[in-house]
Write a structure and sequence with these properties.
Layout lengths: L6 E4 L8 H15 L4 E4 L5 H5 L7 E6 L7 H21 L5 E5 L1 H6 L2 H4 L4 E4 L5 H17 L4 H12 L19 H10 L1 H5 L17 H13 L4 E5 L2 H11 L7 E5 L4 H10 L2 E5 L14 H4 L1 H10 L13 E5 L6 E3 L1 H8 L5 E5 L29 E6 L1 H4 L7 E6 L8 H10 L7 H13 L4 H27 L7 E2 L35 E3 L3 E5 L16 H10 L6 E2 L3 E5 L6 H19 L4 H4 L1 H6 L8 H14 L2 H10 L8 H9 L3 E5 L13 E3 L14 H16 L6 E3 L2 E5 L2 E9 L3
Helix pairs in contact: 1-6, 7-10, 7-18, 10-18, 11-12, 11-17, 12-26, 19-21, 25-27
Bound molecules: pyridoxal-5'-phosphate.
Length: 750
């Protein structure tokens, strides 16, 4: 496999008709003769953006001739530029070769702190261009050879090798596709390499994901080193699967487990699959619908024991300690916990402390996050409890969809039994894992190796803050409360630079978060998650006279090429992953202003949202503002902000173990109950409204009046505003008194 990484030459004479111009072009030609492309530029331009070229270059050659030292002033300028250039490169990349190409005076003038970062000094006229080219190309090649981590390296070699395979997959390196027209299309779209690299686990030289051997194992060890954990497992089926593996490795039927009520559904699936008896920790919530932290008090073991004592399904013979605690570490909106504080409270009280860090794999790579993530450099061990973190590489880092990993930190007294753990790992892994996903786990980890990884995280932090500053600037320029869209976060925002942790702590009683009296130092907000608040609802749940429901705004944005991550009632959410660009967030700021303009003029929907109107012509002549007003009035009439808060905070009464309730579904011992008759019934399925996508009821819990009121509201709303439906997983359509209505499967009552 030949990769394309040009050698970049920076020389102000690159295009000049003088001696140094001829000289440098001769060198460029000689390098190209060695088979590497050359890119010649005459200056750095904007240094920081120029330094980004380090990701696609194999070497830099900076040419400085003696003439540039004619005056002291010029010499100072040249040296300062060079120093900054080298610093910008080394901030991101410790290894890429940088050569200085110059004359006698160059070498004398360049200070040692700059020279030290160079791979060599090439004297312009001492050797032939061909000789210099061979030397530079050798260094460039050896740099490129050092880049690929073990599995990715082996896979590229295998794909390039061209051996005939008799093993599956049946498409045989893509050949099967070439035999049919639509197959040809598929082949052309994805390309030869993706298909050549799609191999099965009969290929010995690539190692085995299922047994953690060979290059796969080498890559998992490499990632464990980069992420500072004792064990690391790549998972090719998402953190949904990672969570189930962690649970199945340590939880058995009847075990007591402690779970964040704001958890991903894969954790609830784990409860059902293992037959565990859950007790829940309830997070705070504000009336924007933003879920806050679980208060520190809730984590105290006395509190947890009280909950266990109150649970009717805990067997007298159950082990004294809960088997596992699972916390959503980084909520959707970016709320984080101080992990050291949790370890201190629960070490030895709960066997496994599991942090679901689907949204937080970046935190280990920047000091900003301190102790507010599970496992990292120089983090102490628990005496007894094991620490697990599950991370969606694909959400925040550069992994293909479903790329995920499990990180483990042993305790002082206990080490992970890898053989036992692997039994649970096998239970949830396909025997035909997708090798491109393994390679992306491998590469995503290698990308985070310092200094490159920390530089990437620092960039997303900086962009996230610049976005927040830009939003404030628009606000200031409009003045008089004429600008409506705010980014949720602390009042104080520094004027420049990257964030300071202290500024992002959630402090007791602050109005912006509305989570009440939080314990000092326990929670912070990750600024790279940005929740935007639209007007119409305040943090107390009071509705204003008018408003812009976020669902309308995000549909508008989608038609203008901006797709957001999650939409709430009066908020939506975007994030600054390491893939962020200035263009992306600037476009959002511009489109929000465009929306405001269209809203103020109440422009008809057929003009401003034509794609939506093609699907829902009933709104054709409705004005943008009128539509917002209609939906706003509907929300207001049903007091929906308080309703949803109340519903999520209401005491859920378990009537059965979740696994027993789900068993009724498997045996079809369920009634399909219409919404109006649900109060008091016991659900046999998960009920999850989107937004926010947090399960509301789990199998074995009883419907209360508030939840039924919410479901009726959702039914009426969906009837009145097609196209803006609240989606509720768990509701099924069925015949209700001769008409189609919404039902939930419930356990048959005795
Ligand atoms: C997305 C998510 C998961 C599941 O991750 P996938 O990689 O999509 O399977 C688990 N937990 C939380 C908190 C998540 O947000």
């Amino acid at each position: 496999m030949r990769f394309q990484f040009p050698i970049i030459i920076i020389d102000e004479d690159f295009r000049s008709e003088n001696t140094s111009g001829f000289g440098v072009r001769a060198l460029a030609k000689a390098i190209e003769g060695e088979g590497i492309e050359v890119l010649g530029v005459t200056g750095y331009g904007d240094l920081a953006s120029f330094a980004q070229q380090q990701s696609r270059a194999s070497t830099f050659i900076v040419s400085i001739d003696d003439e540039e030292f004619n005056s002291e002033e010029e010499a100072d300028r040249v040296i300062e530029n060079l120093r900054q250039f080298v610093a910008e490169i080394r901030f991101r990349n410790a290894d890429i070769p940088i050569f200085l190409y110059g004359e006698t005076r160059t070498s004398r003038h360049i200070p040692n702190d700059v020279l030290r970062e160079m791979h060599g000094f090439i004297h312009m006229f001492e050797d032939t261009p061909e000789f210099i080219a061979r030397y530079v190309v050798r260094e460039a090649r050896s740099y490129l050879d050092s880049l690929a981590p073990p599995f990715f390296r082996a896979l590229t070699h295998y794909a390039a090798d061209g051996s005939y395979s008799w093993h599956c997959p049946g498409h045989s390196g893509g050949v099967a596709f070439l035999k049919s027209p639509v197959g040809q299309m598929f082949h052309q779209f994805f390309g030869e390499n993706m298909l050549r690299a799609d191999v099965c686990n009969a290929v010995d030289e690539l190692g085995q994901l299922l047994d953690h051997t060979g290059p796969v194992a080498a890559s998992e060890r490499n990632a464990a080193r980069i992420f500072h954990c004792d064990h690391l497992y790549f998972v090719t089926n998402g953190t949904s699967t990672s969570n189930k593996m962690v649970w199945h490795s340590t939880v058995a039927p009847g075990d007591v487990v402690v779970v964040d009520r704001n958890c991903h559904k894969s954790i609830l699936h784990s409860i059902i699959m293992t037959g565990a008896v859950p007790v829940f920790l309830t997070p705070t919530r504000n009336h924007y619908g933003i879920i806050g932290p679980i208060p520190l008090e809730e984590f105290k073991i006395e509190n947890i024991r009280k909950k266990i004592a109150a649970n009717p399904f805990v067997s007298k013979t159950a082990a004294k300690n809960p088997r596992i605690l699972t916390i959503t570490q980084s909520t959707y909106d970016g709320v984080l916990y101080n992990v050291e504080a949790i370890k201190e409270m629960l070490d030895g009280e709960i066997d496994t402390l599991h942090f679901d860090e689907a949204w937080l794999p970046h935190a280990a790579f920047h000091d900003f996050y301190g102790d507010y993530h599970a496992i990292g450099e120089d983090r102490g061990r628990c005496k007894e409890s094991m620490i697990f973190s599950t991370q969606s590489t694909h959400k925040m880092l550069a992994g293909l969809s479903q790329a995920s990993q499990i990180l483990v930190q042993d305790s002082e007294e206990r080490q992970l039994d890898r053989d036992i753990f692997n039994e649970a790992y096998l239970m949830h892994t396909s025997t035909s894992p997708q090798y491109s996903i393994i390679a992306s786990c491998d590469v995503a980890a290698a990308m985070m190796e310092p200094p490159g990884g920390p530089a990437l995280v620092e960039e997303s932090l900086a962009e996230a803050l610049d976005f927040r500053r830009a939003m404030r600037k628009v606000d200031d320029e409009f003045g008089d409360n004429d600008w409506w869209f705010k980014v949720w976060g602390p009042e104080y925002l520094s004027d420049d630079g990257i964030p300071e942790r202290e500024d992002w702590m959630l402090k007791a009683g602050e109005r912006w978060h509305g989570f009440g009296d939080l314990a000092p130092g326990f929670n912070m907000l990750d600024p790279i998650k940005a929740t935007l608040i639209t007007p119409g609802l305040d943090v107390d749940g009071d509705f204003a006279e008018w408003g812009i429901p976020a669902g309308v705004l995000t549909k508008y944005l989608a038609e203008h090429g901006i797709v957001v991550e999650k939409t709430g009632l009066y908020s939506f959410f975007i994030m600054f992953t390491i893939g962020i660009t200035k263009g992306r967030w600037n476009t959002l700021v511009t489109e929000l202003q465009q929306f405001k303009d269209d809203f103020d003029r109440n422009r008809p929907l057929w003009r401003v949202m034509p794609e939506f109107i093609a699907k829902h012509p009933r709104y054709e002549r409705v004005g943008l503002k009128d539509l917002c007003m209609q939906i706003h009035a509907f929300y207001q009439k049903h007091d929906v902000a308080r309703l949803t808060t109340e519903m999520y905070l209401s005491d859920m009464v378990p009537a059965m173990r979740p696994t027993d309730a789900f068993a009724k579904t498997a045996h079809r011992e369920v009634d399909r109950v219409p919404i109006d008759d649900l109060e008091g019934r016991v659900t046999s399925v998960l009920l999850t409204p989107y937004p926010p996508g947090i399960p509301l009821l789990i199998p074995g819990e009883r419907f209360n009046a508030t939840i039924v009121r919410y479901l009726k509201f959702a039914r009426d709303f969906n009837g009145s505003f097609p196209g803006f439906e609240t989606d509720i997983h768990g509701l099924v359509k069925a015949d209700v008194n001769g008409q189609t209505g919404y039902c939930v499967d419930c356990v048959i009552q005795d």
